[in-house]
Amino acid sequence: xxxxxxxxxxxxxxxxxxxxxxxxxxxxxxxxxxxxxxxxxxxxxxxxxxxxxxxxxxxxxxxxxxxxxxxxxxxxxxxxxxxxxxxxxxxxxxxxxxxxxxxxxxxxxxxxxxxxxxxxxxxxxxxxxxxxxxxxxxxxxxxxxxxxxxxxxxxxxxxxxxxxxxxxxxxxxx
Length: 174
Description:
By secondary structure, the protein is α+β, with helices and mostly antiparallel strands. It contains 3 helices and 7 strands; from the N terminus they run H-E-E-E-E-E-E-E-H-H.
């Protein structure tokens, strides 16, 4: 089921998410819904707070090449456990901040630990777009948006654009 994606500024996007202590069927359905919502958007990552659920859950799939086999991942309680000293710069966007992109510098390589939908523990090193995406989504779980890495003036400009977009969308629905 497609879930509505919250648009910045929304107070739920700035709140830290709670750890998942019990992997319920409800949370498994949420992960499945989030993947469907992410693919439909279209995006490469989505965090539970973006659909109004303050649980530590992210989904991502950064296989972008034509003909590549999709690799959907649902990560419960993901945590960066190691980062490289080397950094990379990617032009990031966010489904909660539509049509806005900005360069963000992050570690080029990260090691992440998480639990899958069956409760199994995983650990993996991510590089390239995967590293950027997983860090971006984990930031959401701490109430941090990619625009928080930008200078205050640029961030305020983007926030004003989003307020205007939300007003326009509300008028269209009325």
